[in-house]
Input
Amino acid sequence: MESVCRRCYHFSKNLYRVTTKDGGVVLLNMLVCVSCARLARSLGLATVKMESAKTVAKTKRVQAMTDSKQQPVQPPLSIR
Ligand SMILES: [Zn+2]
Output
């Protein structure tokens, strides 16, 4: 999934879904970046932060790698 704002085409790690409903009819439904979501919110539009399961898994993997690095592998001793 591309993490690009549909409004300003700025690459963003966290996307927000902005929706506008009028009488139960969805008029607007687009993914935007943080700054555009803030703007939408100031205009009174509904914004929901998108939680990506992929991003969560990636973060956990990075933490696991960091833990394994706490025990450095001994470099082989050169025999002379
Ligand atoms: Zn934007």
Notes: The mean pLDDT is 82. The chain has one domain: 3-69. The beta strands are 16-22, 25-32, 46-49.
